[in-house]
Amino acid sequence: MSEIIFLIITIISMITIPLAYNYLDKKGLYIMLIIMTIVSYLLSFKVLNIWGLSVNANVITTISILEIVYLLIEKETKKNHYNYLFLTIFCLIATAFAILTTSSYIPSINDTLSTNMKGLFIDNYQILIIFPLLLIITEIISPQIYLTLNQIYQNKIISINLIYMVLGLLNSLIFSFIAYASDPSFLSKLNIALATYFIGLIISILYTPIFNYLTSKKKVRL
Amino acid sequence: MNLIYLIIEIILCYTTIIILYQKKQKEGLYLYAIVGLILSNIMVLKRTEILSLEIALGFTIYASIFITSNIIVQKYGPEEIKKLILVLVGSTVVSTIIIFLATLINGNTSMSIMNETFDYTFQNLRIMLANSISILIILWFNAILYHQIRRVKNKIIISNILTSIIVSFMATIIFSFIAYLGLVNIKELSILILIRYLIILIIEIIGTIPIYIINKIK
In B, which residues are within 8 Å of A5 by CB distance? Predict the structure, then answer.
């Protein structure tokens, strides 16, 4: 059942990006970037168990964010290339602020969720810090590598997947070892990092036809 | 202490709206509304006390979304709100579905505490939907009302206060009925409605200031 739900989330993420682009053009991509960034930040606080692997729940949405960034690099003028970075930083700061504020308010006596929220977000403060940092760094570095690789290989799909093969692995390893630092087992952290990387690679490859379709699409209905 | 947090939150929300408008104009207001709606859906899950009165959190962002809508009407006309509502419906549907579905997936057993807390927190679909639905249903009415009052008496303060008095009452009733009906008795429900209404109304009246400031920005 878990695997089916995971696939449903993957399909939802993959369908909504072209839909948003079809109806709202580049604005649709920016809106999807906002949604995926906030959702990804929240999902980073869960580790899934699917197909016997321990995978961070944000893997689908993080890959979606990167695909949107590459699409924006392709579609936007050079002047507006880094608009997405402003949006990402704003969304991450706003989400962190909302999480911290919610946890700080003294709960009412009837509140049953407060302990959970505090336990989830404050006790796992490493995730609260490392996820936004890694996402911002990735969003700064990967488009530059993408443009360079694109010049060398003249193939967008190879470029994107090559970047994920290297940056994705680094990202997963750094995230797992810092986010789950309180977990004493080295193997457990390595397991999560590699499983998340492996599933992420498959999702990145699955995105290929959508990326091809959207980059070749010229005019959209507004 | 909660009152201090509330004041800081109000200042931050309205300052953010002004800064985003200065930097990105209409797109900045859209950005605030989208991010605000998704985040208020999360914040609303917690209940707190303001001046010993119980209220579900997220109400500051909730109220500031209506202020953002009033700014859009003031600057671009009521038709622009239709687009905003469509964008907000899409954003809230996608984000809520993905987060809720993630709670249904089995978590890794070695991190069971974190996973169970995540699931328990975000499985409160009813309150999240109550928050989104009450905003989305009332937003169009809010725009029309603000626009009509503005046509009769072209004063921001009058348009905003009159709209806020009516709109926040309707939004609070819709929110409270969806969120709490059947969980609390009618007397408690009435008190929850009244408290939420009064607090949101005060925040929306304070929201006249950012509307004035943004209206002066060319």
Answer: 101-102, 104-105
